Amino acid sequence: MDSRAGVAVEFRLLGAVEAWAREGQLQLGPRKQRFLLAVLALNVNRLVHVDRLVALTWSDKPPHTAQHAIHVRISQLRALLAKAAADGDGVEIDTQGSTYVLRADPMRVDAHRFRALVARSRSATNDHEKVAVLREALDMWHGPPLADAASPEVAAQLFGGLQEMRLAAMEECLDAELRLGRHWAVIDELIELTALYPHRQHLLGRLMLALYRAGRTPDALAIYRAAYRQLVNELGLEPELQLQKLHTAILRGEPALDLPRPAGQARHVPLPTVAFAAPA
Asked: One digit per residue, pLDDT tens: the chain, 280 residues?
């Protein structure tokens, strides 16, 4: 049973669409019904017009019965939440004319908790606190948003800004980890992220710096060469100035890049192959 069991009704959108109540995970019904709940949860406490729901639910020409189908599914969701929510939970779906609204505390929706934690991280008084808050926020993601309820195109339309916020939060967190001297701890994570996002040059720079601080200068330089080849030969772009300056500083072994190594830490671990694929 998930850790959300035993608490008031909460909603997950950062991955598969789920709802959890005191009795455990709720069965939200078919794909389109899960999607409708996700849209209402993303817009919690805001009115959503039925025309907007129809347009998002059917990317092609909607059927003549589309509005009726929306109403039926919303009614089923309303009954489901009414049954799951205990007295005083304050979770319900209201209908106002041609609009619907999910009324709930926004902090019961993981997307809104994520935003709140990222905002809180910016007022952290030190990097230890910043890392703790950002890791809590990033741990809320369990896959692509709306993974089982919407097409990638619709998910990108609804969550594009939030996904960019996630990547920025990752970079901020890794920057703080590096400032704390945790370069050994983040190398594997950075290798995975640069493979997923090979054109985010900030991540490439963080990987180069982590490798350099771990005593793996040849590996750091190899990362730059691979990125340079792709950017110049395949995309016709020069590396950003910041990445070029970091490359020069590593070549020179500038002391400003260094941080003390943990006592007894080995200097070299074989580097897994990092592929820098061109975008589709």
From this structure: 344 444 579 999 999 999 999 889 999 999 999 999 999 999 999 999 999 999 999 978 899 999 999 999 999 999 999 888 765 577 999 999 999 999 999 999 999 999 999 999 999 999 999 999 999 999 999 999 999 999 999 999 999 999 999 999 999 999 999 999 999 999 999 999 999 998 899 999 999 999 999 999 999 999 999 999 988 888 888 899 999 999 999 999 999 898 744 444 444 333 333 343 333 3
Within 13 Å of residue 130, how many CA atoms lie on the same side as its CB?
18
Domains of the chain: 10-105 (1.10.10.10), 181-280 (1.25.40.10)
Quick check: 153 and 101 in contact, CB under 8 A?
A: no
Separation in Å, CA 2 to CA 6, 15, 141, 252: 9, 15, 15, 51
